[in-house]
Amino acid sequence: MEEQDRRLKASMDKIKQKIVVLSGKGGVGKSTVTANLAIALASEDHGGKVGVLDADITGPSIPKMLGVRSHGLAMGPPGVFPALGPYNMKVMSMDYFLSSDEMPVIWRGPLKSMAIKQFLAEVVWGDLDFLVVDLPPGTGDEALTVMQSIPNIGGVVIVTIPSEVSQIVVKKAVTFTRKLGAPILGIIENMSGFVCPQCGAETNIFKTGGGRKIGEQLGVQFLGRVPLDARICDDSDQGTPFIMQHPDSLAAKAFLEIVRNIEKQIPRQPPNTKET
Amino acid sequence: MEEQDRRLKASMDKIKQKIVVLSGKGGVGKSTVTANLAIALASEDHGGKVGVLDADITGPSIPKMLGVRSHGLAMGPPGVFPALGPYNMKVMSMDYFLSSDEMPVIWRGPLKSMAIKQFLAEVVWGDLDFLVVDLPPGTGDEALTVMQSIPNIGGVVIVTIPSEVSQIVVKKAVTFTRKLGAPILGIIENMSGFVCPQCGAETNIFKTGGGRKIGEQLGVQFLGRVPLDARICDDSDQGTPFIMQHPDSLAAKAFLEIVRNIEKQIPRQPPNTKET
pLDDT tens for residues A144-168? Predict the structure, then answer.
């Protein structure tokens, strides 16, 4: 195990910024946020220098969303080579090790933690500017392992939907992150309002404003809100992140604003102190 | 441990039907389905004879949705007494053991499994007609423990949203359930289409039809679809399940039809063989 820890540290040391995307409740669009955040970073001037780790062992969906499924992964003396997504993004997911979609991963926590550690230590990430880690919902084994195994996490992005039920779970995610000593970059309110494409009337299906409210309550930056848009789901299903496919949509614009808010807070390499 | 297993079995033997609500992906409305299914059963002629176990240890939301939060739970020689919800429904959740909303449960799998076993063994459920168990997303520790610990599960309800990304994860849930030998009652397609309250135009925000398609592919009954409705989220936040609060809504009617489809498949006590 010490050998693995050493390799893990060496591998992570070659990655300038490690960003973790966390949510309390599931289904708030965490993976969509991860995929689009990675695309936004890679499309700027980090092509080939962005990695995405899908740490959702039992429900991996990043490969589908980024359109990089069913790649046979190459292996070599240094380890497993990640799949290559848009902008030469490096992608690793449990999905690549399952023989079919039907195949469930019926693993208890310790095994899931072991898999995540292997993804960190044995994958040939190489020199990256950013590694974006997509966690499964909640504050369980996967989240703990990621937070405790990755040295120098640059920051945690917390995704929520506006509903009050979600707010309760988001509070837990904030406390969890603080307890583990990682900096919080802020809260994204996803699925915030829906504009009828027919008549333009806005309906707040999952309410609105909850993310900002919780940010203020807990002293966490509010990064912005992304509205519901049927095209986001379509794009995810087709493996083309919506900020690539529909860059002019309200949702894509909102999302890019959020990415800028995140970037402002991440010290560039060599580290400098931008004001947030 | 043997003593606990004995108590668990004795406790479960007093419950006629154990129904488990499972989803692959999070945020598909599993807890909303659980809460409303329990209400529907209790409101028929099972008042006081329905229990709900919130097996989502790190993100419990059932108490909030059923409007039974912050009850101090009574303890006595037979164990912990569950909270009492609408129609004298018996409710147990990790939420009752947390001092504040901010408090996260930072537990690895074995601890979560232990908590669930205690909820099954040490809670004074009494004689029930139905126990509805709400699982956290995925096929991890909580799901495994529930499926392996509860004897004679009457059936598993699988909740999904229509998107393709969700379908992949639903397939895993179906295989998971089959591997563990529990009968599948069927698939519910939640968040299926949205009707603009302003103009009546329908938008399939998360697509539509995926649940039926996957059911056909896997040979699993399709129980029905529930449309998106902003009032569902409002009602959940206010702790009044929407089939109580808005019984005339399209969503409530769809949901009651689903409950009937579920009931058709559950043999009544004393067991008889209704055709499905």
Answer: 999 999 999 999 999 999 998 888 8
Collect all residues with Cβ–Cβ distance below 8 Å to B219 and sequence separation of at least 6.
Answer: none
Q: Suggest the residue from A112, A169, A214, A217 to mutate for an interface test with chain B (most B CBs closer than 10 A).
A: A169
* Shortest alpha-carbon distance between residue B37 and chain A (Å): 18
* Angle at B117 (CA atoms; ends B116, B119), nearest 5 degrees: 60
**pTM given for the model:** 0.87
DSSP 8-class letter at B123: B
Q: Is the dihedral of CA B32, B38, B40, B43 positive or negative?
A: negative
- Which of A167, A173, A201 has its CB closest to that of B104? A173
3-class secondary structure, A99: coil
Residue A75 vs residues A54, A115, B135: alpha-carbon distances, Å: 19, 16, 37
Report chain B's C-alpha Rg in angstroms: 18
Q: Given this model, what pLDDT does residue B138 score?
A: 85
* Average pLDDT value for residue range A47-58: 95
Residues from chain A that touch B239, judged by Cβ atoms under 8 A, are: none
Chain B closest-CA separation from residue A199 CA (Å): 7
Return the sign of the alpha-carbon dihedral for residues A100, A105, A106, A111: positive
